[in-house]
Amino acid sequence: MARAKGGVKTKNSHKKWLKLAKSFCGRRSTIIKTGKLAVIHALAYAYVGRKKNKRNMRQLWTTRINAASKEHQLAYSKFINGLKKANVELDRKVLAAIASEDAKTFASLVQISRSAGN
Fold it and tell me: Which DSSP string do the residues of 12-25 spell out, in sequence order?
């Protein structure tokens, strides 16, 4: 009996991996074994990168809020604590946008935070 080597299924699998590795340099885009390894690593890095991006954005928002609250002589932690006591449920993304775009609204938030914090 003749030896079966996979044929169509193997070829389709190889094509799938090489399609994912299409933009890679050198052998990584043409050789199946190295291309598959490169794609696996790239997908792992992309997964980790998405988590890091969320971390970096939250850090950026915190920095922006801190800078804006320091202009009003109020520390970041006291500002956030005052907002929580006042039951103001704005997340850091929105607070950072308000801090950078609308100074009057942020000043009113600082006043709310100060009055609730005392």
Answer: HHHHHHHHHTTTS-
Q: How many CB atoms lie within 10 A of CB 83?
A: 19
Instruction: Tell me the one-letter amino acid at 95.
Output: L
pLDDT digit string, tens, across residues 3-30? 877 889 999 999 999 999 999 999 999 9
| Amino acid letter, residue 21 | A
Average pLDDT over residues 101-111: 94
pTM score, whole prediction: 0.75
Decide if 85 contacts 112 (C-beta within 8 A). Answer: no
Checking if the pLDDT of 64 tops 80, the result is yes
CATH class of the 9-117 domain in this structure: mainly alpha
Distance of alpha carbon 82 from alpha carbon 26, whole angstroms? 57
Q: 113, 53, 65, 116: which is closest to 91 by C-alpha?
A: 65
Q: Quickly list H helices, the chain.
A: 8-20, 32-71, 76-85, 92-101, 103-117
